């Protein structure tokens, strides 16, 4: 089973690229972030044409997550973490979706960016990470084989970024962000990409500005965290880097882990 995560940065604008990637790589599960679409505008029929069933949690113009599964219907188990956005009266943002797919629990997350730091958006980011950890502890306690994947908006270590100095003031690299992420690993979750690439230097995001892609000025913020049941069955991980260089591409690229059949 290949489980992938892909921040698509606008599903309508990137739909040809997304369909292209799905058709060429055929992951069993594809978790999407920043679909930037309301529920009634999600192009589910386009995925059905190529053999994928979908569930989604949309929001107008911002955020939004979806889970696609090849040949099977994802069985939704949770939507949202019950935390309101940073603006008063805003309600909950579309950032968390969870489903069962062929014996594996998969959660798709789009963690808040947190900029500018300091400020209410950063406070919201840290509170959201606390809620995420609580949910992950619940899943751990149920002993469900689980993958929590998506755009975590955290650069975990210095070797996960092209320049520590360039990103030093960004919310993605603040000690509070890193500490919150490291607490997830300390709870026993396995960072799939880190495990098979311990020296770092693997990027999943390149900004549209300042020639970041052309200069390979990227960093790693898209992560796949696994329970021991899945980590023991992990056979490969990969970053589909070439898709970042295609026409009208997302600023992220797909990241995946291969899980052997038990």
Automatic annotation (TrEMBL):
InterPro entries: AP_endonuc_1 (IPR004808), Endo/exonu/phosph_ase_sf (IPR036691), Endo/exonuclease/phosphatase (IPR005135), ExoIII-like (IPR037493). Belongs to the DNA repair enzymes AP/ExoA family. CDD domains: ExoIII-like_AP-endo. PROSITE patterns: AP_NUCLEASE_F1_4. It comes from the Bacteria. Probably binds two magnesium or manganese ions per subunit. One of its GO terms (biological process) is DNA repair. One of its GO terms (molecular function) is metal ion binding. Keywords: Hydrolase, Magnesium, Manganese, Metal-binding. SUPFAM superfamilies: DNase I-like. Its cofactor is Mg(2+); Mn(2+). This is Exodeoxyribonuclease III.
